[in-house]
Design goal:
324 residues; alpha+beta; 10 helices; 14 strands
């Protein structure tokens, strides 16, 4: 039943225009002495990460966007056995008399082969124009499984790794898509790794609507301030409920923004967006206007405790594309 549900998920993503990758066949073909997962932890071993990278590269090669990119040559070499920290193994061990298997796999290092000898390349520095941006969870963030390195080896492309351990389904991609870095220099390909147990519907439709608005841009209409303490901006008439408001705090470490929408009767209806302590504050919050019913005409009150009021700017974005 689980396999059937997974296949259905892949098919529905492809039908929606998402390049979805099923790495199960590659993992099932691995020899028994190179298992794809650890014995006492749910993460990939380096062999599982390499199989996933192979499956992803094979799927990408049929895409015109991939074919148009300039390729390089990368090579991965083994570094010997490595042991990863595992919170799950530690938890399971509390219930076991015998010692559970250590979280051990062969560590690898990936290097660009066709680079000048004097010019060492840091695959994950983020410098220059990025061909692939990788966002995801601890599966991608783990150094010991070398997933980003294997992606470069199998695709022939530079990879900037923006994965986040403990960020769950939306942490890393929220960080990246709302950042000035993405806005100013979007990658040719975005790879979003998300374990199937992390449901994308867990927090209703608001996180996905924020991601769509951040990805498509079009937030060019600045709303005029009408009051300063607290900051209030004028909301024009006839706003589509499918639109989004961008609150740009500049270079701010603020993790929570609350918007108060004032109805003609003077009633405030509030919506908020928060970032977790594991995320990197970007100072940019895309607030969907859905869920308010008809969008109240009048003013929006902006609450961002700790932000410099003079640096706050509020924009109205175009209507979102696609169904959620």
């Amino acid at each position: 039943m689980a396999a059937q549900v997974f296949q259905d998920l892949i098919a529905r993503l492809e039908a929606a225009g998402v390049v979805a990758v099923n790495a199960v066949p590659q993992m099932m073909d691995l020899p028994s002495d190179t298992p794809p997962f650890f014995a006492a932890d749910f993460h990939w071993t380096s062999f599982g990460a390499r199989a996933a990278a192979e499956a992803l590269a094979a799927r990408l090669k049929s895409e015109p966007a991939y074919q148009a990119l300039e390729k390089s040559t990368y090579a991965s070499r083994p570094l010997g056995q490595g042991t990863a920290f595992s919170g799950l193994r530690r938890l399971l061990q509390l219930s076991c008399h015998k010692s559970l298997p250590q979280v051990v796999t062969t560590a690898f290092e990936t290097e660009k082969v066709d680079q000048p000898e004097e010019g060492a390349l840091d695959l994950f520095s983020g410098g220059g124009s990025d061909q692939i941006a990788l966002v995801g969870t601890s599966f991608s963030d783990s150094e010991i499984n070398n997933f980003a390195g294997f992606l470069s080896e199998k695709t022939g492309l530079d990879v900037i790794n923006r994965a986040l351990t403990g960020g769950n389904q939306f942490g890393a991609i929220q960080d990246y898509l709302t950042s000035a870095e993405f806005h100013q220099n979007p990658p040719a390909i975005l790879i979003w790794e998300n374990p199937v147990y992390n449901s994308l519907t867990r927090f209703a439709d608001q996180p996905m609507r924020e991601l769509i608005a951040a990805a498509q841009g079009g937030c060019d209409t600045q709303l005029a301030p009408v009051a300063e303490d607290p900051l209030q901006v004028a909301l024009p008439k006839g706003v589509d409920p499918q639109q989004t408001v961008l609150v740009d705090l500049g270079r701010s470490s603020v993790r929570r923004v609350v918007l108060g929408f004032e109805t003609p009767e003077g009633v405030l209806r509030h919506k908020s967006i928060s970032r977790s302590p594991r995320q990197t504050p970007a100072g940019r919050f895309f607030m969907p206007l859905t869920g308010l019913g008809p969008v109240p005409e009048g003013r929006i009150r902006v609450q961002a405790k700790g932000a410099d009021p003079s640096s706050i700017r509020v924009f109205l974005c175009a209507s979102g594309k696609g169904d959620i």
